[in-house]
Amino acid sequence: MSQWSQVQQLEIKFLEQVDQFYDDNFPMEIRHLLAQWIEGQDWEAASNNEAMATILLQNLLIQVDEQLDRVSQEKNLLLIHNLKRIRKLLQGKYHGNPMHIAVIISNCLREERRILAAASMPVQGPLEKSLQNSVVSERQRNVEHKVSAIKNSAQMTDQDVKYLEDLQEEFDFRYKTIQSLEQSDKNSALIKQEMLALQAMLNTLDYKRKEVLSKIGRVIHEIDMLMSNMLTEELLDWKRRQQIACIGGPLHGGLDQLQNCFTLLAESLFQVRRQLEKLDELLTRLTYDGDPIPVQRPQLLEKVNFLLYNLFRNSFVVERQPCMPTHPQRPMVLKTLIQFTVKLRLLIKLPELNYQIRVKATIDKNVSTVSNRRFVLCGTHVKAMNMDESANGSLSVEFRHLQPKEMKSSAGSKGNEGPHMVTEELHSISFETQVCLYGLTINLETSSLPVVMISNVSQLPNAWASIIWYNLSTNDPQNLSFFNNPPAASLSQLLEVLSWQFSSYVGRGLNSEQLNMLAEKLTGQVSYNDYQLSWAKFCKEHLPGKSFTFWVWLEAILDLIKKHILPLWIDGYVMGFVSKEKERILLKDKTPGTFLLRFSESNLGGITFTWVDQLENGDVTFHSVEPYNKGRLSALPFADILRDYKVIMADNVPENPLKYLYPDIPKDKAFGKHYSCQPNEVSKPSDGGGKGYVPSVFIPVSKILNDSTDPHSPSDLLPMSPSVYAVLREHLSPTVIETAV
């Protein structure tokens, strides 16, 4: 079943998450129509290879054309229209930057895998539960409702101001008419009656002025209360969700809804500001004793301007945190002299601001004591915000060509740049701009979440550990001295984040049994409720009896899965995190030949398999092969190792001991689709090889002696083809075969 087919079978709450990351950058129609083709391409590799990305973009457009031909024959007018629009959009948007669409599609596929993994988990973790709190959802609805009500109130007040203006014009006309009469005429009874009418009209004007000012005051108060409470909480919640998403958590959404709220509030405030200006204009034409306008208007205008300043300042956000395109799953880790991207958005979307706001990027602008190292940003560090580059038309700017460069120290040397750069040192990328609108000048500043600077990719794992710990432990967006005294973290939340590392990076998260094994490895305890884990225990102290830390061990396993056993991991056939003791408990009552796959606890980036066997006297015995590392797995795919693995027992009869994957899945049923070729498909000796040589492949072979429960260290990758081995078994005795191997 394709990944897209699995996605379509998810519950609605998960489908809503999928819906959030498909937009005009990569329309869902294309994902649906080209599901199998899209999943068959290596988009991640293309995201770092422009030539490959160019070819994939061309092939994608060809696939769209083929779909267009098909639906044209079916005369599906709506789909024809949508596909033509999408094709034009894809070609126009990515023709000059094909790697960008490769990054987008790679991210979408990875996010689908994360959601599928989350859906397969029996329970949500504490962090994810907190992000999907029903109270938060209710507050979001309340904010939208209140913003809409405020907008309606401001528009209704516009009508009151217009009525007041018409009433004053009528009063002004009638008053000037009386003033133009001769003195003798003013004493007539008719004129005296008109004067009484004018006085009544002035009283009405006074009442209406007070009423309008009162309504304006209520609108301002409602905006103030909304901004001070619910809207501020919404923005802080979004920023927290962004933090969690950056370390592998659920994709954060809600920024478009926030933009709508901020924009409507800004429009309402500017509308109120115009109403106050109109009152000032009416004041210059008519005033009187006890006039409320000169008393109340200055205070109201000052409050409106204050709210506008705060609204604009809060609306300037980092929409996408700094990230190297070469490492999309490791945001906020930046390598010197390597380009990174970062995107900012102004949540107040007004057409008057399009291309009018220039944003400047700097690094460590206000930091003087946190670090001895200093950096500058090379590349285009000033750009204008616009509504044309974003698919949803938001007012944003994306920096794509920034590079951090370390400045030379005062002595003229290169500071600390090199393999020993401290990965716990945090830096800040700042952005500043100025908004000039309707007589207001507002200076805006914002900053990225703290970033870690590295000079060598070997420092990436520890740098990423720092990013995980920071964003798990604190809501503070700018605590650059955090690692001077890093706090302990809740182990239950940390385990949830570790599961996210697997779901986001290798497409399948960890189940409760796997997480329990990791918890026991970190704490030495079976129960870990309310356990607080120190930063040193996670990333700095070596595991007992080992020469490496827990995090280095785990990162090596992630790398192993990603590069060598990814399909097996995604299918759920790698138990992986299970201790030797638990392994034997699971296998002891199983059919001989039952095996499971687990990661080595003593070797970095190693995977082994253990199978259960039964001796003649009925006793159960277990055999574990020496762990396979990336070097050996580069020579032979792991699925082929499981298929072809042979053991030469004491009686010299070679056989494959692996029959059933735990608990009882026939081996070929589990791994058959991952075999590179079937043994009987390998060329026979008579077929010949290059330049007359017989073709050969590696066959993994181990020898078990009478006094051994484990295979000897396999010098086990012997250059022998399956067909040759079959011929040997047919024509040679076991003794001769043993001598040969």
UniProtKB/TrEMBL annotation:
SMART domains referenced in this protein's UniProt entry, alphabetically: STAT_int
Xref: InterPro entries: p53-like_TF_DNA-bd_sf, SH2, SH2_dom_sf, STAT, STAT4_CC, STAT4_DBD, STAT4_SH2, STAT_linker
Top-rank taxon: Eukaryota
Record keywords: Acetylation, Activator, ADP-ribosylation, Coiled coil, Cytoplasm, DNA-binding, Isopeptide bond, Methylation, Nucleus, Phosphoprotein, SH2 domain, Transcription, Transcription regulation, Ubl conjugation
Name of the gene encoding the protein in the UniProt record: Stat4
Compartments where found: Cytoplasm; Nucleus
Species lineage: Eukaryota, Metazoa, Chordata, Craniata, Vertebrata
Protein species of origin: Nyctibius grandis
One of the record's GO molecular function terms: DNA binding
Entry similarity comment: Belongs to the transcription factor STAT family.
Cited PANTHER family: SIGNAL TRANSDUCER AND ACTIVATOR OF TRANSCRIPTION
Residue span(s) of domain SH2: 569-671
Protein name, entry field: Signal transducer and activator of transcription
Gene Ontology biological-process annotations: cell surface receptor signaling pathway via JAK-STAT; defense response to virus; negative regulation of developmental process; regulation of apoptotic process; type I interferon-mediated signaling pathway; type II interferon-mediated signaling pathway
CDD domains: SH2_STAT4, STAT4_CCD, STAT4_DBD
Main subcellular location of this protein, as a coarse class: cytoplasm
Gene Ontology CC annotations of this record: cytoplasm; nucleoplasm
